[in-house]
Each structure stands twice: as C-alpha cells, then as structure tokens.
Specification:
alpha+beta, about 35% strand, about 40% helix, Alpha-D-Glucose-1,6-Bisphosphate, Chain A, domain 4, 7-stranded antiparallel sheet, about 180 residues
Length: about 180
C-alpha cells in the first residue's frame, strides 16, 4: 500500500513539474490611460520617486511602509527602496533611463517575499492637449513564478494595480493642472 502511494505521489509531482515547465518563461503586464495634461507635467510625476506617494497603488496598501531615497533626486540614478507589510514586501526601484517627457525605464528589484528583477517602463505620448501614459512591467518567470501562475492570475492582479495607479495619476495631474489655470 505504501509503495503504491509513493508511486502515485511521484507521478503527480512529475506531471505537475512538466505542466509548470511548459508555462511561459517570460511575462508582460501593460496598461494605458489618457490624461488631459501635457506630457512634461505627467512625466514629472513619474520621474521623481518622491511624488509616487500621491498616486502609487502600493502606497495605499501599506501607508506605514518604510521608504528611503538615494542617488539622484530624480531621473537616471534615482533610487527608491521600501520595506512594507506582507502584501508589499521589500524591494528597490532604480531609474535607469529617463528621456525628457517620452519614457522612463526602471529596474525593479523585489527582495521579499520573493526575489525577482523586472523591467518597468513608462511611456508618454502626446496627443494634442492630452498624454497617453503606458505602464509596462516585463520579466522572466522562474519555476516558482510559473507554478504560482497556475493558481493565481498575476497579470490581472498586477494589471489591476496598474489601472488603479494610472487612474490616481490621472486624477492628481488633471486636478493640479485645473488648479493652475
């Protein structure tokens, strides 16, 4: 009986491992929003990590998280580190590319509850008096991320947070722009 149980258990582990290994080895999450403001105004909110507290969805999940800023005050070389609750974890973002009102590339490093390094990109496309902002995160799925992806829709979870953040960014920028007029 024990031998039969062991064989079934090993078969399940092998089948599960094969299914996990067949999952995509890369991921990409992308969301966009149109904001009624000039690209430089929107760009300024993203290019300075100190502004993120006003619109980042993760800041709302753990308002007590510990934050620190290093390097340049904004743009290339700016670093934002955080240590938060179980939902937020611990990590660090570094702006690696900042092209005036067009794009911001960020190296996103998660430390806890799991380690991962992802590429985050914000693009700003002017369309008349408006700006289309696109927030993208991409990276590689290791075995553990592939396994988690079988049970949780990570694209939807992260995408929902991106949508909240972009909506908050839109509200902030449009309200601020209206007040200046």
């Amino acid at each position: 009986m024990l031998k039969k149980f062991f064989i079934i258990f090993v078969a399940i582990v092998i089948i599960f491992s094969v299914i996990v290994s067949m999952q995509p080895s890369e991921f990409k999450v992308e969301r966009s929003i149109t904001i009624a403001a000039a690209a430089p105004t929107v760009f300024a909110q993203v290019n300075d990590f100190r502004h993120w507290a006003q619109w980042s969805p993760w800041e709302k999940i753990d308002p007590a998280m510990k934050k620190s800023f290093e390097g340049a005050p904004l743009g290339v070389g700016a670093i934002y580190s955080w240590v938060g609750n179980n939902e937020i974890g611990e990590g660090r973002m570094t702006i690696t590319e900042s092209m005036g009102s067009e794009l911001i590339r960020i190296k996103l490093e998660f430390i806890k509850p799991f380690t991962a390094t992802n590429d985050t990109l914000f693009t700003f496309k002017s369309e008349g008096n408006q700006t289309v902002v696109t927030w993208t995160m991409s990276g590689k799925n290791n075995f553990m991320a592939k396994a988690i992806g079988l049970f949780m829709n990570c694209e939807k979870m992260v995408g929902d947070q991106f949508e909240k953040g972009l909506a908050q960014l839109k509200s902030l920028v449009e309200t601020t722009s209206t007040m200046r007029r």
